[in-house]
Amino acid sequence: MKLPSHGLITGVVAVLTVIALTGCSGTPNSTGSPATSTGRFAVDSHTLVFGVVPDSAATQTNYQPLMDYLAKVTGKKVTYQQSTDYAALIEAAVAGKIDVASFSGFTYVTAKKNGAAITPISSIITKQGQEPGYYSEAIVPANSTITDISGFKNKKVCFVSPTSTSGYLFPSYSLLNAGIDPAQEVTPVFAGKHDVSVAKVAAGGECDAGFAEDSEADPAAAAGKIRIIAKTMVPGAPITISDTLPQATKDSVIKALSTVTIDQIIAAGITSANTDGFKSVFHATSPVTDNYYDTVRDICKKTNAKQCQ
């Protein structure tokens, strides 16, 4: 379900400054929700708050069947909390204002680093046999003589934007691993969007090479417009659970969301799942653990990206 996985991260540094200044003034449960001897909810023991960053007008519609299924399995009311951007979702997680959330891999690591008591449960896959995640792909014009990333040195290289996970952070990591300093040894061209990066590389001239996510690069390669010379897996966006929930509730949520298929959701009577729209963005969930995001942590270490601070 290509939702937060592919979005851009904006305003994270500013909001983390706010978190740092306010985080010491109270407990993670700044909402005043009732605590029990076994755990704490974002609102109350009858409700689960599901946090999501909208990356399209259809975001809530895309998640509604999953939330309806979670409500049926747990017996609780599941409310949709829309965050304006990833920074706001991080802030909500650190403040204990969400029980379940869908992050990007990068913002999960950032939230965790800044004190969010959350654990990844699973990641959404959209097709049978698919693994969680997607690829950041290194591309060149179809007639280019460049055969590997080492050939990007001293070239004009298309990126998406400085805050794009698959369009800049992972590419910078790939360049560093190839012995190329992305800040000094390439001439960056920020295309703004993945499809524009592909188009500029295909046209040649403005960009000798570039990077884009697989959903844009693969069709262009199939059409013979570009060649893909390397790819790096970007960990799939995690569905996370708050560590502060009572254990029985956590067990129930994990059972519901760790390995559920669309057929199981439909069989449970969730009619909203039996639509072409939902089937196009959801096939199943696949379990992931915190270690799955170590590549993101390594990128933060090697690139010293400001979004990691």
Automatic annotation (TrEMBL):
<dbReference type="InterPro" id="IPR005770">
    <property type="entry name" value="PhnD"/>
</dbReference>
<dbReference type="Pfam" id="PF12974">
    <property type="entry name" value="Phosphonate-bd"/>
</dbReference>
<comment type="similarity">
    <text>Belongs to the phosphate/phosphite/phosphonate binding protein family.</text>
</comment>
<dbReference type="GO" id="GO:0043190">
    <property type="term" value="C:ATP-binding cassette (ABC) transporter complex"/>
</dbReference>
<dbReference type="GO" id="GO:0055085">
    <property type="term" value="P:transmembrane transport"/>
</dbReference>
<keyword id="KW-0732">Signal</keyword>
<protein>
    <submittedName>
        <fullName>Phosphate/phosphite/phosphonate ABC transporter substrate-binding protein</fullName>
    </submittedName>
</protein>
